[in-house]
Amino acid sequence: MSGLAIITEACIDVKDRACVDVCPVQCIYEFDPEKNVLFSEDEAGSGAIENTHAPNPDAVVIFGDTLLYVNLEECTSCTACYQPDVCPVGAIYSEEQVPDGVTATSYNSEDPNKGHDHTFFIQLSRDVFAD
Ligand code: SF4
Ligand code: SF4
């Protein structure tokens, strides 16, 4: 499916969950290291868990709970989370538009990591969910 959402490095340690509130299918997950589970909330900070997945330990250890993860099996490509006014740091791209560091024009205007290759996060989004 085209238009799947990919969260990239600008989310690290920002994680304000603005994207969680606009996602209509609750497919944006956070890692809970104490319970060793990926969880999605009904609304950000509500404590109402919508769904959980087991993490892949080899993948989740890379960034742990420092950023959020989109489950690409559940994302409907609705485009809501990567509209320009949602993520304060421009961390979210559609899969086809994740910048590879080659052309400066493909970065979100708020992304502080312009020039970095973000394509690592495409595979990470797939690897981090074990089920
Ligand atoms: S594109 Fe839509 S369904 Fe996919 S993560 Fe973003 S808000 Fe959720
Ligand atoms: S809106 Fe952006 S910074 Fe906030 S949690 Fe989502 S991806 Fe991270």
Give a verbal description of the structure:
The protein has a single domain (5-127), classed as Alpha-Beta Plaits. The model has no long low-confidence stretch (mean pLDDT 96). It has a 4-stranded antiparallel beta sheet with strand order 4-3-2-5, with no helix packed on it. A two-stranded antiparallel ribbon has the order 1-6. The chain starts with a strand and ends with a helix. The longest helix is centred in the last third of the chain and has 8 residues, at 120-127. It is globular, with a radius of gyration of 14 Å. It is built from 3 helices and 6 strands. 15% of the residues lie in helices and 18% in strands. With 131 residues, the protein is of the alpha+beta class. One iron/sulfur cluster is lined by residues 5, 22-23, 25, 27-28, 70, 75-81.
What number is the mean pLDDT?
Answer: 96
Content-based structural category:
alpha+beta
CATH C-level name = Alpha Beta
The third-level CATH topology is Alpha-Beta Plaits
Query: What is the terminal separation in angstroms?
Result: 19 Å
Overall spatial form: globular
Unreliable runs: none
Instruction: Give, in spatial order, the strands making up the sheet with the most strands.
Output: 4-3-2-5
Give the total of beta strands.
6
| Percentage of β-strand residues | 15-25%
Level-2 CATH architecture: 2-Layer Sandwich
Number of domains: 1
The major sheet is characterized as: 4 strands, antiparallel
Number of helices: 3
**Ligand inventory:** iron/sulfur cluster
Helix content: 10-25%
Order of helices and strands: EHEEEHEEH
Oligomerization category of the chains in this entry: single chain
Rounded to an integer in angstroms, the radius of gyration calculated over CA atoms is 14 Å
